[in-house]
Each structure stands twice: as C-alpha cells, then as structure tokens.
Design brief:
CATH superfamily of the largest domain in chain B: Nucleic acid-binding proteins
Strand content of chain B: over 45%
Helix content of chain B: under 10%
Largest interface: A-B, 20 and 25 residues
Order of helices and strands of chain A: HHEHHEHEHEEHEHHHHHHHHHHH
CATH architecture of the largest domain in chain B: Beta Barrel
CATH topology of the largest domain in chain B: OB fold (Dihydrolipoamide Acetyltransferase, E2P)
Oligomer: heterodimer
CATH topology of one domain in chain A: Arc Repressor Mutant, subunit A
Radius of gyration of chain B: 22 Å
Largest sheet of chain B: 5 strands, antiparallel
Distance between the termini of chain A: 87 Å
Radius of gyration of chain A: 51 Å
C-alpha cells in the first residue's frame, strides 16, 4: 500500500482547488494580516504526512490557532476530503491515542503521562480519506469539463429567463405559461414585464441579447477556458490516472486504526507489559462502540493467553500434578515464538520425562493390579472351595440322614453307586479337614474332583 | 416512448346505464374518460386496447351510482429526456419555437437552434439559414431531441434541441 502517489494527488488537488480558499467569514474585513489564504494547502500537506491526528496536536504542530484549524478542517470535511471523529474521552483515552501515534511515528515518542482526570473532554481527530479524495477530485474535474463543454456547445442547457422589472426567474420549461397572445415575447406572470434570456454566468460581460457576434465571442472565451483548464490541470489529471489502479490507503475508523497501531507495535516490540494497563482500559477509555475493533483486541488477548498458557504449563511442570500428554506439547511448540522455545523445550523435556514415568507407573500398577486381582481371585476361590466342601459335607450328612428316603425313592443309579462306594472311600475322608463321621461316598467322589482342581 | 400497460380505474356508472349492455356502457365511458388524459407517472393515455376484467360493482350510498374497479390495457406515451422525437412546429417567435409531438408540447429555445439559423420576423416568423436552404416555420416538421421534461400530475412539458447531428427540419413545408 504505497501512500506516496496519493499524497501527491492530495498536494496537487490542494494547490489546484484550495489555493485561494479563505475560511474567514465574508463579514470580516480582509486586512493583510487576517488574510489566511494558503492555510488550506498547508493543512492538507500536513495531513498528508500523518494518519489520524488529534486536531489539537495538529494545530500545535502547525502553530495555528485551533479554532482556525477547525474551521479549515470543517471546510474540508464538507468537501469530503477529510474524515473527522469526535469523542469524549479522559486523559487516559488520549494516552491511548498517543501510544498509537507513537506506534506509527517511530522515534517520535509522545509520553504525556500525568493528570488522570476523570473529566471527559471532547477531542477531535482528523484524517485524510484517500479513496474519497480520489473520487471527489475526479468528480470535480468531470463537472468542470462538462460544464464548459455544455456551455461551449449550448448543449443540454435549459435556457433561463429573468424579468428585468421584478427579478423573477423562469426557465424554458415554463415557456408554455409565459407566451403571451399579443406578441412573440415571454412575459412575466406577476408583472407582465418582458422577459430577457439570461446570459451565461461564465461569460457575464456579454449580456445575452442573442447577438450572433456576442455569441461567437463567448464561444471563443469558453474555448479558451477549457483549454486553460486542460493545460493547468494536466498534472492533476495525470496523477489521477496514475493512482487509478492503485489501492487507496485505508486507515479505517479512528478506533480501528488505533487498535491496529497497538497490535502492530506489540508485534514489533514483542510483549510489553507496559501496554497492558492501556489495553485493559481500552474498552473503558472511550464511550464509543467497541464493536468494530473487537477482532483486533482479540489478537492482543491471544498474546496474553499464550503467556498465561506458559505459566500454567510451567506450574504444572513444577508441581507435577498435571502431566501433559505429548501431543499437547507438540501443539504448543508450533505456536510459540523463538524466545519461548527454551521454555517450551524444557516443558517438553519435563513432559517426556514425566510421561514414561507415568506409563511405567501405569504398567506396574496394572501388573500389580493384575497380581492382586489374581491373588484375590485365588483366595476367594479357595475360600469358596472350602466353604463348598463344608457345605457338601453338611449336605452329605443330611443325605446320610435321609438315606432311607433316598433309598426308597430309588434315586439315580449313580447316587446308589456312590452309596455303595461310600464305605470304600470312607477311609480317604480321614485325610480331610472335614472329619465328619457321616461323610458319605457322594461327597468323597466330589472331593476327589476337587482335589484334582486343587492340584491343577 | 410508447408502452402497453395495464391500468386500473374505479368507474362510477349512473343507474340509468344498468341493463343488458351495462358492460358496453361502462367501456364506452372508460374510453371517454381516460383516452387523451395525461398522468405524470405513466404519460399520455393514447388508446385503450382491451379490458382485463371488471370487478364487482359497489353501490354508493345516497347517489345510487355504482363503482366498478376496471382493469384495462392501454397504450401510453411518455416522453423521456434524451429521446428523439418528430414533431410539428406550432409557433415560432423570437425566443424559439414550439412544436407538438402528438399530445406533447415541446419548446425549443433559440439557444438550442443551430447558430447558423437566424430569426426572421414578419408575417410568417421563421428561422432560416443564411443561404435560405433550410427554414423552420409554422407547420414544419422537425426532428428534435428532448433535453428536459417537466412532469406534473396531469401535464408533461418538454424542452428540446435541434442543435445536434441529424436533427432539424425533416421536410420542407414550402414544397408541400
């Protein structure tokens, strides 16, 4: 975004159109001293060297009275060359701007600390609107040329008529109402005076009496004017053409510009803690709408977050409570700048050191758990086994008591077989804890199975 | 420029027209009322070409008149700035001349008449070139360009120019 061609355009336009603009009212007598022609050019030139500027500062720089400057700027605002912004702000808010200025104008440090007044002052800021200036100048040139050409060719001009008696004005569109029945002239509606065609404003000395000679003279004059215009404004037109395809420098609104200036400075200086208070008061400093630069402030917030993230990480490393998974650390590495690389590496090392520990722990824990589980299982199993054996013993006892009924009912042959076998296995029972006298063959048979289990 | 458009109008019909040919009466009255009128928005209504539909009549309290909303197709003529028209000169004076293109009145001021044409007063005021080959007088036909229109609610007035290529007299009344 080169600003130089546009500045040249501004300077040319200033000299072409605003050279003899005086901002004094017409009622004031024009003495040599109060003649302030040329101020407009000076102000525009000064603005072309700045971006957004507080009008007070500009007045101070130009050694102008702020009122005079303001009048000039208001004129330019009406001419659409300059955008202005007014806002109520505290001294703090003004400091924000100063900081922004410092960020753009390198070396030129505005350090206006001090009076922290809560009182709000309305400050005005102004800035050249290059895109609009381009359009305005182009339109102006177009209008000038069109006016002259139309006059020259008498094309598309609505003839105006004026009543010499009462000064009432008509144009050709009123012609139907103006024709009188008596003669061939137009007559005034109110005083019935004979209307005369109004002469062109550009060639005022030939009163438009329709004389062909006068007309010819006027044509000559218009042609001269058109030629002069083409010659004198040639540099300006060339500059317009040069600028045509360039993107106009855009500073945005005052807030956006400030926010951007802040961001830029932060990017240059890295993280400066000095800016933090102003940043925190950013939203509070001025009562305007904070919405447009929300995105920009977000960027600043991101810086803060990153820093905080570091802190958190380092804390986690120190305490060792939170062990970051490796993927997270990687991501952090990508985001950080060079200066934070060491911290990151440390963090990574810590993390990698911690991670194996964790995994080992986990593994051993898992193994332990497995062991414990198995032990637990074995214990429970043995307990259950013993219990069952006891139960079986009890059951067999019961069975033994009910042996009669069992026999009567004629249970499964196996049972009977067991019964028969019982005395055989009866001796074996003595080996077991269950020293019940009524141990039955059934139980012993099962016990044998159990023993097999145990052995396995 | 001519347009063929659909317009709507509420027609008040006297009770004496009620009967078999109510519709014919209604259309006849519509034509009488509308044709030749001028509205600023649409221009001059040249002719009604058809009836789109006739809505339900509403009897007015007290009078017995019935109002019908009628939609009708019509041809309108609306002059525009920059349009080229052919017109008949109606009056010539020192200030210029007036011409008519159908219903539209057009004034051409003497500034917008080519510089080589001079006003000649007399019995038959006219603008004549120095060699007398071209003459603009009453009943001449001219081709002109509209450079301005004044559109009122019920009236359209134009100013025109003949100071351009291919504009000016398109027939010679003297030879007719």
């Amino acid at each position: 975004m080169s600003i130089e061609p546009f500045n040249r355009l501004v300077k040319l336009a200033a000299r072409a159109f605003y050279d003899d603009i005086t901002t004094k009212g017409d009622n004031q007598p024009k003495t040599g001293r109060s003649d302030n022609r040329g101020i407009a050019v000076v102000v525009l030139d000064a603005l072309s060297r700045r971006q957004w500027v507080r009008e007070e500062d500009l007045a101070k720089d130009l050694k102008l009275h702020s009122k005079q400057l303001r009048r000039t700027l208001r004129f330019f605002e009406e001419e659409k060359l300059v955008t202005r912004d007014h806002r109520k702000e505290t001294a703090k808010g003004a400091k924000i701007f100063s900081a922004a200025v410092a960020a753009t104008a390198d070396g030129q440090q505005h350090t206006k600390e001090g009076e922290e007044k809560i009182k709000l002052h309305t400050h005005s800021y102004c800035c050249l609107d290059y895109a609009q200036i381009y359009d305005v100048v182009r339109y102006r040139l177009h209008r000038m040329r069109k006016k002259l050409k139309d006059e020259l060719e008498d094309k598309n001009t609505v003839q105006e008529y004026v009543c010499p008696n009462c000064g009432k004005r008509y144009n050709a569109l009123d012609a139907l109402q103006l024709i009188s029945l008596e003669d061939e002239y137009f007559h005034c509606e109110s005083c019935n005076g004979e209307l005369v065609a109004e002469s062109d404003k550009l060639a005022s000395q030939d009163v438009g009496d329709g004389d062909s000679n006068a007309r010819r003279q006027r044509r000559e004059k218009l042609k001269d004017m058109l030629q002069n215009m083409e010659v004198q404004l040639k540099p300006l037109m060339e500059q317009i053409n040069r600028v045509k395809d360039l993107p106009a420098p855009e500073f945005g609104t005052l807030q956006a510009w400030e926010a951007r200036a802040h961001a830029q400075r932060r990017a240059e200086n890295g993280e400066s803690s000095a800016m933090d208070p102003s940043k925190s008061s950013h939203g509070l400093g001025y009562g305007g709408t904070p919405m447009p630069f929300l995105g920009d402030t977000k960027v600043e917030v991101d810086f803060g977050n990153e820093g905080k993230g570091n802190d958190v990480k380092s804390e986690a490393d120190i305490t060792g409570q939170k062990i970051l998974p490796p993927w997270m650390i990687k991501q952090g590495m990508n985001l950080t700048k060079e200066q934070r690389g060491e911290v990151k590496q440390e963090a990574k090392m810590d993390g990698t050191l911690a991670a194996p520990e964790y995994s080992d722990d986990k593994k051993s824990n898992a193994e332990d758990n497995d062991k414990a589980f198995q032990d637990e299982y074995f214990k429970a199993y043995y307990a259950a086994l013993i219990k069952r054996q006891e139960e079986e013993a009890a059951k067999s006892r019961q069975v033994g008591m009910k042996s009669k009924r069992d026999l009567n009912e004629g249970d499964e042959g196996e049972d009977n077989v067991d019964w028969q076998e019982a005395p055989v296995a009866g001796d074996a029972n003595g080996n077991y804890k269950v020293n019940d006298l009524n141990v039955e063959a059934d139980a012993t048979a099962e016990d044998e199975d159990d023993i097999d289990w145990e052995e396995s | 420029m001519f347009f063929h458009i659909v317009l709507e109008r509420n027609m008040q019909l006297h009770p004496r027209h009620f009967g078999r040919n109510l519709r014919e009466n209604l259309v006849a009255k519509l034509m009488k009322d509308v044709e030749g009128t001028c509205s600023g928005q649409h221009g001059f209504v040249v002719a009604i070409t058809g009836i789109e539909n006739i809505g339900k009549g509403l009897i007015r309290d007290g009078t017995g008149f019935v109002s019908f909303p009628v939609k009708y197709q019509c041809v309108v003529f609306r002059p525009f700035k920059g349009e080229i028209l052919e017109a008949v000169v109606t009056m010539v004076n020192k200030m210029g001349f007036f011409a008519e293109a159908g219903p539209v009145q057009i004034f051409v001021s003497n500034h917008l008449i080519p510089d080589d044409m001079e006003f000649q007063s007399g019995d038959m005021p006219n603008y004549t070139t120095s060699d007398g080959s071209v003459k603009i007088q009453k009943d001449s036909e001219v081709r002109l360009k509209i450079i301005g229109t004044r559109v009122d609610a019920t009236e359209i007035f134009c100013i025109g120019t003949i100071k351009d290529d291919f504009l000016g007299v398109i027939n010679d009344p003297a030879s007719v």
